[in-house]
């Protein structure tokens, strides 16, 4: 669907959106948290926008013994909690397309039951096209389900539905190191073609992350200065004020490097630093991302502490509320060595970025929620203002503010009116909310729609996942084989001495969190 609508500048803008074709969405883990918090709510919004086809249904699978009716009631509750502006009619139309079957994922008879149910529902809803299998289950179940889908030929049907239309959606974490990710890729690719596999990183569905592509490659003025000649360094931050919440069991085995760094952080790095793709086609963009990830310099294990610092939160206070330490959280080993904070310095060994440091940090229970990419430009090569007594001129910084206050800002020096010479740093700021007047759509809306439409642009290819693990596996192994512990930082702080040292030893400073 191509829409032309007036833009903020008064000129017409072209919006391209493709509505979903007839789709059967099979969600494994339908009684779980992800389905409740993200998938159902996102699909409801897509339906309200008229982008969900009439011929759509969702078949939830789970171990809990729900009837269709019970599943619908739970779904209705989840939707009403989040989408308060949904009319009864919209809700009813959507809810009536939901079904549920229960069973044991490792039992082949469950897949016979599934096949039968799909045939009935396909006929009832006149769905003969796209069939999505969504793995919203804990990762240890991925292989079992995929194998069974392969055996029963649900992964690769014979006639009516073409193979391309049957798709597998896999959530993160995808493996826990290089070996497990490669094994999982091999197992999945035995049953599904790469063209059928959609590996989710929900950061890629965020509007502001997608906008990195538009910003860099739809404007002629940034690319010529987007390199080592003009850029001093880049900082990428994902700071969270939340702790591990109810996910202690998973998180304590994962830690920040696996949970955030291997995927979200490296994906943002790839988009910010990759070469311009030749076209807006999935594989052209994914080729460039992989090429970039392959150029990240491997960490020298003997100097690891100079390049990667890990931390774990101790008790503290956030927004005036006392919070406990990581080790006191539910389902966390009281002697856990798991990191909840990572700061790292990376170099990209290619012509564009040679010797430009990329400082990346992510942590839980920090003072603010703040995700941003800050491009710090070099100082002016020669300042004529020194002779007039102005020595401390701040270099320009371009900030792509990903969340929670989505925007873009550019700082620059300007003369302050009044005195003969008086310079101050100003900010040119664009804020999505005030310009577009809408709140940002949930990342899963975009991603689910793209799975239905068959667009893999925002999904990770096997080689990107493995390249990211290849970089980080030696780090994980070093930590696992060492007795050293993460440094402590108080919950509610912004950073800690060792993380500061990582950047300050280069004569630079972390940006303040939530600084625009
Ligand atoms: C998930 C991580 O992938 O991303 C969580 O597993 C983290 O630990 C979450 O809290 C952050 O996502 P967002 O969209 O809130 O920044």
Task: Please explain how this structure is put together.
By secondary structure, the protein is of the alpha/beta class. The protein is built from 15 helices and 19 strands. The strands form 4 sheets. Strands 18-17-16-15-9-14-13-10-19 form a 9-stranded mixed β-sheet, sandwiched between helices. The protein has a 6-stranded parallel β-sheet with strand order 5-4-3-6-7-8, with helices on both faces. Strands 1-2 form a two-stranded antiparallel ribbon. β16 and β17 form a beta hairpin. The chain is globular, with a radius of gyration of 24 Å. The model has no long low-confidence stretch (mean pLDDT 93). Bound molecules: 6-O-phosphono-beta-D-glucopyranose. 6-O-phosphono-beta-D-glucopyranose (BG6) binds next to loops.
Give a nutshell description of this structure.
The protein is of the alpha/beta class and 516 residues long. The chain is built from 15 helices and 19 strands. Strand 11 and strand 12 form a beta hairpin.
Which ranges are low-confidence, i.e. pLDDT below 50, for 5 or more consecutive residues? Answer: none
Helicity, as a percent range:
25-40%
The coarse overall form would be globular
Q: From the helix content, strand content and strand pairing, which structural class follows?
A: alpha/beta
Q: List how many beta strands DSSP finds.
A: 19
Ligand set: 6-O-phosphono-beta-D-glucopyranose
Q: Could you give a short account of the major beta sheet?
A: 9 strands, mixed
